[in-house]
Amino acid sequence: MSQSQADSNAKSFRHALGCFPTGVAVITTTDAQGQPVGLTCNSFSSVSLEPPLVSWSLRKSSKSIEIFRQTKQFAINVLSHKQDDLSGRFASSSKTMAEKFAAHPYTAGWGSTPVLDDCIANFQCSVFASHDAGDHVIFIGQVEAFEQSSDEDALVFYKGAYMMLAQSLRALSQKGGASEAELVQARGAVYTTLVRLACAAAQPADLQLIEQNLRVLDGHVAEGNMHRRAEAAITFFKQLTTAAHNEMLAIVAQSLTAILEFTVSERVARSQAPALYLPALNPLRWLVLERLRAQDADGAAAAMSQYFDLVAASR
Fold first, then answer.
1. 47-80 in b/e burial notation, b at 16+ Cβ within 10 A?
2. Per-residue pLDDT tens for 91-116?
3. Around Cβ 41, how many Cβ atoms within 10 Å?
4. Cis peptide before 105 (omega within 30 of 0)
5. How far is CA 231 from CA 149, 150, 248, in A?
6. Per-residue pLDDT tens for 274-293?
7. Which end of the chain has the lower number of beta carbons within 10 A, N or C?
8. pTM of the full predicted structure?
């Protein structure tokens, strides 16, 4: 296997792992001089209830690996959705440990381990075991003390980005804080940008999948199966998101698509799926695909903008 193939496989593997949302925590301990040490981690997991065991892992290339190999205790500080700045601070390589801890209050917990204030939960552990595992070391801790101090939502990491925006958009929609017109406008802005990116980033396989789905969609229209047509229309936007190969915008697009799926399912439940069908949108989908293949960013964006103008006018 060539180096480029190995790099591509590693990137694909990381992307696949990113499909599983994980919480974010800061792991803290003290070094041989008793100074606080901390780093951001999203590999925290429960292991056992009896005895109470938890685990996390750290790259062997980490500057802090030897400190954690030698320590006898550590604390896992679970972050709330409001603490993305804290996550970023302890993940930064440009700040010293003193700077990281100076910016956030902490207290000495079990074994004098630093416990960060205002986290939603913490688990103060003695080291139960550690195991080499490829390019990481897995640390297993026995929980000696723990605290849950808040019912705030946790900070969640998903596909390379925090899910705060995704959660906020869903909450806004569910609470009725966003009108359908606003959601259509937001989707139009996002997907107009995504198709511009896809003109440069889409792979032939991406475009082939879009074409196959559009043929399926047209087949459902011919059959009069409006429920399946609606599902294929949603798939079209998911495929556009994939074709853009931009993980940050994908989070926004996936959130907006989730809201759309909720809206469609509600209308399907009320037998209103046919009312969602606009025949004029069919040729615009094909036009977007045509412009993507021609790598015509302006043409693809114009077709996408026209698509959402028609959707907005129909509401």
1. beeeebbbbbbbeeeeebeebbeebebbbbbbbb
2. 888 889 999 999 899 999 999 999 99
3. 21
4. no
5. 42, 39, 24
6. 455 788 999 999 999 999 99
7. N
8. 0.55
